[in-house]
């Protein structure tokens, strides 16, 4: 079983679901008891959401999938939509950098009248007194020289956002078409979202690092010194990122850049 990510019990449940033609009663009977054989790892607790949906299908019928999904907590249902939005955004920003680089391009979206360092419009279009959806504009031939890459944003897909007017807008369209997904205002909450925007570039503030020597002695350095220093085996790093940015991504980029530079 080492070659599988899921346990034998979980794989058995999926097999019963498939072979029974999606029979919720048979599948529920095949599910391991919560915590049996070692708790979460055995699959009982891990399949709590599947169990809830199957009970919903059993209660409301296989033709009423929406009511079955509503047996889950609201936050869980919305999490799945938010996860898909983030997935599409990650694909789009990767493609944006790959195709157009790190310079501002005509057709990009940018935030004008930015009130803080991070665009913070949430899924309701407002956010913490900061920049809002109405501040998002399209880069044109006339204003491109006034826009910095730090102002450029990309949308998390939804029915209340605009998309870039360059080739990245078409990329969004192709992804949503491929996945057969559309975000409509007049539909159930479990199947749509307003959408919002995220900056495509984040900047670390107050960057400091300490070289850790063999004896445990530390030596602090600023950003300029860091760029000039030799390779070190061990160091401690401190920095500050805006809301919605991940330190793990900052470290990944830092270490990837370092490896690429010397290897």
How does this structure look, described?
- It is built from eight helices and seven strands; from the N terminus they run H-H-H-H-H-E-E-E-H-E-E-E-H-E-H.
- The chain has helices at residues 8-19, 24-30, 48-60, 65-69, 74-100, 167-178, 223-228, 247-262, and strands at 109-111, 136-138, 152-156, 196-199, 205-212, 218-221, 235-240.
- It has a four-stranded antiparallel β-sheet with strand order 2-1-3-4, covered by helices on one side.
- The radius of gyration is 24 Å and the shape is globular.
Strand order of the largest sheet: 2-1-3-4
Estimate the strand proportion. 5-15%
> Roughly how many Å is the radius of gyration?
24 Å
Basic shape = globular
Q: What kind of sheet is the major sheet?
A: 4 strands, antiparallel
Uncertain stretches: 37-43, 123-130
Number of helical elements: 8
Mean pLDDT: 83
Assembly state here? single chain
Beta strands, count: 7
Helix content: 25-40%
Structural class by SSE content: alpha+beta
CA-to-CA gap between the ends?
A: 37 Å
Order of SSEs: HHHHHEEEHEEEHEH
Note the topology:
Blueprint (H helix, E strand, L loop, with lengths): L7 H12 L4 H7 L17 H13 L4 H5 L4 H27 L8 E3 L24 E3 L13 E5 L10 H12 L17 E4 L5 E8 L5 E4 L1 H6 L6 E6 L6 H16 L1
Antiparallel strand pairs: 1-2, 1-3, 3-4, 5-6, 5-7
Short description:
This protein has 263 residues and is an alpha+beta fold. The protein contains eight helices and seven strands, in the order αααααβββαβββαβα.
